[in-house]
Amino acid sequence: MSASSPSSPSPLPTTPQSSPSSAAAAKPAPALFILCEACMWCATYLDKSKARDRCAVCQSPMLSSFPIMPDESFTFGYDAKRGVEMDFGRRVSSSGGRKKS
Q: I need a labelling partner for 77 at 20 to 30 A (CA). Which of 8, 25, 37, 92 fits?
């Protein structure tokens, strides 16, 4: 009598599982605030890939940038004597209210 070898199990179909790294990738990216150091032009980009490497007004490459998280808000002002003034805070509700931090 010959013993037959057990057949190997067939692979089961798998469904993609969401992992912590893929869940983080699905989070919306923060907006990007960009300020030209030369002429004080500024913009907020919702899509980082659309951001420029030169000022849209004066073509200067001297740009500062930082992320704005979804739960953050800010106001931006400019005065010839005082320069740029920015006020940052946390949003307290989805209605757009702010709470200073």
A: 92
